[in-house]
Amino acid sequence: MSSTLRFQVVGEAFKKRPVEVLSPKERPSEFFAKYVFNRQKMMRYLPTEVFKKMVDVMDNGATLDMATADAVAEGMKRWAMELGATHITHWFQPLTEGTAEKHDGFVEHDGKGGMVEEFTGKQLVQQEPDASSFPSGGIRSTFEARGYSAWDPASPVFVIGDTLMIPTVFISYTGEALDFKAPLKKALHAVDKAATEVARLFYPDVKKVVSNLGWEQEYFLVDEQLYAARPDLVMTGRTLLGHDSAKNQQMDDHYFGSIPERVVAFMRDLEIQALELGIPCKTRHNECAPNQFELAPIFEETNLAVDHNMLLMMLMKKVARKHGFRCLLHEKPFAGINGSGKHNNWSLSTDTGILLHNPGKTPLDNLRFITFIVETLMAVWKHNGLLKASIVSATNAHRLGANEAPPAIISSFLGKQLSEVLEHIEYSESAELSEFSEFSKATKHGVHLDIPQIPELLIDNTDRNRTSPFAFTGNRFEFRAVGSEANCASAMIALNAAVAETLMDFKTRVDALMEQGVDKLQAILKLVREDIRTCKPIHFDGNGYSEEWKQEAARRGLDVEASCPLVIDRYLDESSVEMFRKTHVFNRAELEARNEIKWETYTKKIQIEARIFGDLCLNHIIPVATRYQSSLIDNVHKTAQIFPAEMASSLSANNINLIQQISEHASYITEHVEKLVEARKVANRIESEREKAIAYHDTVAPLIEDIRYHADKLELIIDDEIWPLPKYREMLFIS
Ligand code: ADP
Ligand code: MG
What is the pTM of this model? Predict the structure, then answer.
C-alpha cells in the first residue's frame, strides 16, 4: 500500500463510530439455546417412546437403532424447518484447524415430478464426506479415500442460518480416528470408568463420573481496514514485522479497564448469538495487552465444552467482521506484548453431585479429595512431556519455549495450603498405625481425623500463581498452557486419558493391598502417601518463568525440550503408546499418523511465514528504505552545493549517519532473505516430515526473527509518511 493509503486507512479506522448496541426484547434466560435441539425441544418434537430412547442413548450410551433414528430425524426436521432450515450438514473437527461441513438440501424427488423435503435417520446418523482432502497422516491411502462422519448424540444439533448442524465424529473406512472428537470421546469414557471405580471406594452409589471443562478464550480485535493493510496478519494471523509501540501494556491500564463502546457492541452481539446456540457465556473483560479481551462461559461436560469452543471461535470471526473488526485468535499476534491463551479449567464430578477435586466437610470427603488431587498429579508427572506435546504448535511456541516466552516445562502449582496438607500426610508416617485406626474410627463414628488442615482449609484457596502451566485453583486444575487458537480436545484427550491411566492403576493397587487383608482406607492412605513422594518433582510453586527453574526442572527429570517438532516425539514414547493403548484411545498406527500431520502442519506454518516475510521485506520495506535513503542522499548533495565544504559536512553529518544505517540494515535484510529462501529450499528437499519440521524449526524460523530485528530498526528510521504498513501503535490503540 502506498503511504497516502496508509494514512487514509488509519484515518478511517479512527473515525469509525460505534455501531448500534443490540438489545433484544427477551432476556438471556428466554433466548438461551433458541437454536439448539436440546432435551426440552426433544420432549416437544419427539413421541414419548422415542424421547425416552434418546435419553437412554445420551445418558447411558445405549445404541441407537434405525427406527429410533428415523423418528428422531423426523422431529428434528420439523423443528429445524420451523426455524427456516433448508439444509443439513454433518459438522466435524478434522485434524486441520477449525471445523468442516458439507451441506445437503432436504429436497428429494417425490417421484411425481415435484420435490419433497426429506431427512431420514440414515442421513442423521451417517454421512460420507469426500475425505481425500483432509489430513490422515497416511492412514487412508488415496485409493481408499473414504471417511465417515457419524452423529454424536451427546452433543445436541443446532441451526445456524438455513442449516441444521449435526456434531459428528470423523473416522476412516477402517475405523481409525481422523478427527479430535472420536479420541476425545474415548478418553472421556476411559476417565469415567476409571474415576467411577475409584470414587466408589468412597461412595458406593456413584455410577458415573463426568469430566468438566471451562475454557477462557483470549483474543485480540483489530480494525479490519488496518488488518487488510497487513499482508502478514492476513496470511499468518500474526505480525511478522513491527516495532514496539512507545506505549503498550506497561501502564497496566487495559486489564479489567472499561471496555470501549465499539468492542462492547461486538461482545454483546457475540454473546447473544452464542447464548442462542446454547453456549453459556458468563464472563467478559479486557485482558493485559491493548485490544486484547477474554470471554469465558460457565464450565460444561468436556465433549460439549469443546464443541462449544469450536463454535464460539467460528462465531467470533463472523461477528467481528460485522462490526468492522478482525478477531485474532493467534497465540502471539504482536511481539513485545502478551500473547493469548485458552486456560482449560478441568475437574471431575460424579453423577451424585460431588466435585472430586473439591475438598469436602468430612474426613472421608477429604481423603477422596486428596486421592484425586494426587492421582491427577501422578498423571501430570508421568506424562509431563506428553501433556506439553498436546499443546505445542508453531503458533503456541511463541507462548512456550520460543523468544520472549516462558520455558517449555509442565509443572503444577498447588498453593500454600494444599502443599502443607500434602506435606503433612507425607511426613506423618511415624504415626502411621495410630493414624490409620483413628482414620477408620473417624469414618465410622464421625470422629475428627488427625489430618487437621483438611476440613477447614482450602475452602477459600485464593492464592494464585500466573506463571504455572497447570495450577490448582480451589476446586479444579487450570491447564494454562493451551493456546488460544487450539482445539481444546488435544489437551483434553491427553489429560483425561493420562488421569484415567493413573486412576486405573491406583484402583489395581488398592485391590491388591485389600486382598492382602489391608483395610480399604488404610490402603488408600498408604498409596496416597507413596504417590505424594513419587510425583513430587511435578510440584513447583515458584516462578515458572525464571531461568533457574529451567535448570531445576532438568535436575528433577522433567521434560525441558523447547523445540516443537521434538516435543511432538513424546506421543511416540513407550509410556504414551502404552497409556493410550490401555485406555483404548489411540493405537500406535493412529499416533504415528497423527504425528506425521503435526510435523507437516508445523512445517507449512513456518513455510508460509517465511514466504510472506520475504515478500514483505523485498517488496515493502526495502523499496521504501531505498526511497528514503535516496532523498537523504539528494539532500546531502544539495547541501554541499550551497554551503561551504566544512559547514556542509557538519550540516549533513546526521543524514550521512542515517544513510549508512539504512545501508547496513537494508543489505543485512537482502542478504539474509536470500539465506532464508535457501534454507527453505534445503528443508523442502527433506523427505521425512519429522526431519523437515526440525529443519524448519532450526534453520528457517530463527532467520525470520533475526531479519525482523533489522526491519524493525528501519521502521524507526524511515519517514513515517512513507512507511507502508500500519504500525503497532495504530493497530493496538484503535477500537
Ligand atoms: P479466572 O479467574 O481464572 O480468569 P474465569 O472466571 O475467567 O476465571 O474462568 C474460570 C472458568 O473455570 C469458568 O469457565 C468457570 O466456569 C470454570 N470453572 C469453575 N469451576 C470449575 C470446575 N470445578 N471445573 C471446571 N471448570 C470450572
Ligand atoms: Mg479469566
Answer: 0.93
